[in-house]
Amino acid sequence: MENKINWKIVRNGLFLIVVVLFLMPILISSIFSFFPINETLYVYLANSLNYAILLTLLIFIYKEPLKKDGKDFLKNWKTYLPKILFNWIRALVFMIFTNLILISFLGNIAENEAQNETLLQNYPIFSVFLMVVIGPFIEELLFRLGFKNAFKNKNVYLFFTAILFGFGHILASFDFSTLEGFLACLPQCLFIIPYSGIGYFLAKTYMDTDNIFSSVTFHSIHNGLAVVISLIGMMLS
Description:
Order of helices and strands: HHHHHHHHH
Number of helices: 9
Oligomer: single chain
Radius of gyration: 18 Å
Largest sheet: none
Number of strands: 0
Structural class: mainly alpha
């Protein structure tokens, strides 16, 4: 029977995610630890270097599909936009519903969202650019485009990339330095539900349009709304 999963693509995709989301930031932080600079300058320089390297690497790896999808999106964005907005609205409803339940149960928001709010408060302009422009582009290449040809079954692709997307967002907020810190983070695992829900509809948007810039646009719209809500909350507090 024909193999329905290309494990080589899955392996390469997972390895790239580990490098981009975990190993590269650690390496950049280690390099900058040798320089006597203040925290603000460190945030700007370290993040700028990190994202510059990541963007160069990902654009080089996926230059051909990016070129093809870029031309197609410029030509057909009016056709894709209704599908983008429809999937985004469904994702938004799902995330609001599940987040309300989890917040009432746990008493706090997802740690990833809390970290984003802190960044917005301390570095607003820089953070908005990262969250609305750079972040969505990088994550869609990693979690969606990177696994496009790994699964012949569409539903397997949708659920695999959705869960991986959710897992990636909660794992980044875990404290692995001590056992107590790790155990304290375990309730955060429940937030994989809303994040995976968004990941599912992002992947569905990609499948519905066969264009990675559709899911990038969806992702940017979603993050943009989250940023606006956070900024309003900070101004009113």
